[in-house]
Amino acid sequence: MSTQITDPIAKTYTQDEAFEASLKYFKGDDLAARVWVNKYALKDSDGNIYEKTPDDMHTRIAKEIARIEARYPNPMQEDEVFDLIKNFKYIVPQGSPMAGIGNPYQVGSLSNCFVIGNDGSSDSYGGIMKIDQEQVQLMKRRGGVGHDLSHIRPKGSAVKNSALTSTGLVPFMERYSNSTREVAQDGRRGALMLSVSINHPDAEDFIDAKMEQGKVTGANVSVRIDDGFMQAVKDHKPYTQKYPVFSPNPIKQKEIDAEKLWKKIVHNAWQSAEPGILFWDTIARESVPDCYADLGYKTVSTNPCGEIPLCPYDSCRLLAINLFSYVEKPFTPEASFNFELFKKHIAKAQRIMDDIIDLELEKVDAILAKIDADPENDEVKNVERNLWLNIKKKAEEGRRTGIGITAEGDMLAALGIKYGSEAGNEFSVEIHKTIAVEAYRASVYAAKERGAFPIFDSEREKDNPFIQRIKNADEKLYYDMLEYGRRNIALLTIAPTGTTSLMTQTTSGIEPVFLPVYKRRRKVNPNDKEARVDFVDEVGDSWEEYVVFHHRFKEWMQINGIATDKNYSQEELDVIVAKSPYYQATSNDVDWLNKVRMQGAVQKWVDHSISVTINLPNDVDEELVGQLYLEAWQAGCKGVTVYRDGSRSGVLISNDEKKNEEEDSETLTAFPTKRPQVLEADIVRFQNNKEKWIAFIGLIEGKPYEIFTGIADDEDGILLPRWVEKGLIIKNRNEDGSSRYDFQYKNKRGYKTTIEGLSHKFDPEYWNYAKLISTTLRYGMPIEKAVELTNSLQLDSASINTWKNGVARALKRYVADGTIARKQKCDNCNSSELIYQEGCLTCQSCGSSKCG
């Protein structure tokens, strides 16, 4: 156990003190500073902050690593460890290790991710509920969780309880999803991966589950696809699903059209970015831990981002090596990669990872001690206790590590190599081959000094494809491994580095740059004479727009004598970008098939898996998605996720709308095309550019059908009492036969009060646009699409633009919670991960919310 204890007189800092000091540390990067203070600075449950800058955090981590090092021969000293991790330059512990190492204020795990699963075989309510409880127990300790549902019997199977037949696996997807949404993790929600085998008879229901509005919103879903299914798709042949899956003596089986189900997978992924694909035979065939399957190391699912396939009750800790830092003379003709230093640091990183396992075992002991000390009786505590005992056993036996990288995109740009090019792919493969060989070398060397992982058996591993590649790359290393063993059962991954890359100020993981330059806004005081007001939002706040350069793109500009403090026009920025090594190498520029081939080539040198997303523009067809999936399988990828721009918002339609679309997408609509004479209506009040506005929204079945909106206090006097929230919009006729829309409500005495001619109360120049929006709503267009259409209208008049903002603001009230906000950025952290929640825009990255 760690001897570190809470110091009652430890110095504390206010949020502002830590932020200002960290802002200076990150050279003015407010986003990096805020992320570090909010997520990684040492703090207690009362909000006291004990670290002022990342230097304090790195000192804390270095002390703990050095403490573990002292247990073994030839230990690294604290200053050596500190030099490796300081400034996020070379070696970066990720997430849970960064927040948890040396943290005496939280009883939590250092593992980033876990997989659970009753050894993948339990199909009783008891087993299913046990998994639910284990999932919650792990999430409250900050862990992401994955588990597979292939063990649950299919819908309609006979059972010996009062139901007589089983409900299938979809209801349990919703249960596990809801559990995820209920667990808080210090300002963020837990992460869950649910998977199922394509061989399961309910696989199609699983694939469709998230297509229904509001369903399974707390989980990522992926399908485990075997080679037999893929071959059936290629050969246009049928495929037999079984339960238990792949059983020689199934209790249920059915023959399906493989190509038809494949097209559904492709369609759903094209429309909603899910399900992800896991090429399961490739995973199992390549997995080194699966050589020990009979000892409990059979891989059953992956972590939420898919980069770590795991057996039940195993977990993994993550660390990233910053590739950009090994480029000497970056962005110059003399740029080169320092392989000698790189190899040295890979060995150090693997050693640090092994030390972190010892620290994790101490953390698990602390968790077990807390469970034992809790006042509940043993019957209540047994599931949680046994969970952590199982996790401890796997950590001790396998000592699994997760060395990865970040800044691949910046590394290639700094070397003058275009991401996604043939030369870029070749260099990336060389980098990851180097990591694999040197990490395995370090693990063999650690086994010589510290002992091999307890169940190591070279005979079991001799035919494994990955081990054979190591042998072919370095035969001496292979024979050393036969002699001394290996310290760790599996070592490598490529994870999405997320907030880590904000602090390294580089591209994330293996991905290319998202954008080399973009615009952000900062709120300003309009009365400040020095302030420049470029934009006034719907609530009247004033904002200044300014250009933000990706950090390494800015470095390229400085090296090449291009001013970074000038207020460039968009045309000037386009010219600058075109001269840079980032030109046509962004996430939306890279050749998609080439990126898949790159992933497959790199995967051969990563013993776990790779988290990578293929970003596609909105207008690509489904055929391309299918082609990318097929290419990924043939290239040797273990999994792949495709995201078509804006695709997630397209999924949020009701069941009735979905059925109508399937029956006849050209003619049937969700709403009647002929307007009823009377519509129930909501009143929505809001502030629009400092003016008080009102919207009358006619509803059918609770959904917007038409909208009238404008200034609330105009000279015609549409001023409703504040207590009026609902009423009726009635279509009447004027004497000349033209249509008139009246609004009627009851006053407090019960009398009916009518406002005549809504369409004439607002400025007539708005009216054609109002009819356009009403028409899109009447023909059953999903509400978020109507909002999007409103936002995309090219309106010339400033007053019409203000009206457009009002329409969009009013409609957002009806957008389903969880809907992705397309083409919008968070004003606080510039993330594009925005969703609508109760009509407000909420950032999933930093948690900030913007309501009109």
What would you note in describing this structure?
This protein has 852 residues and is α+β, with helices and mostly antiparallel strands. The chain folds into four domains: 15-110 and 317-484, no CATH class; 113-310, Anaerobic Ribonucleotide-triphosphate Reductase Large Chain, CATH 3.20.70; 514-581, no CATH class; 678-815, no CATH class. The chain contains 28 helices and 31 strands. An eight-stranded mixed β-sheet has the order 13-2-3-6-7-10-22-21. Strands 25-24-23-26-27-28 form a six-stranded antiparallel β-sheet. The protein has a three-stranded mixed β-sheet with strand order 1-14-17. Strand 19 (535-536) and strand 20 form a beta hairpin. Helix 6 (125-139) runs parallel beside helix 7 and helix 17 (465-473) packs across helix 18. The longest helix is centred in the middle third of the chain and has 35 residues, at 339-373. The relative contact order is 0.08. The model is unreliable at 1-6 and 649-672 (pLDDT under 50). It is an enzyme of class 1 (oxidoreductase). Residues 29-94 form the Ribonucleotide reductase large subunit N-terminal domain. GO terms for molecular function: ATP binding; cobalamin binding; ribonucleoside-diphosphate reductase activity, thioredoxin disulfide as acceptor. Its EC number is 1.17.4.1. Belongs to the ribonucleoside diphosphate reductase class-2 family.
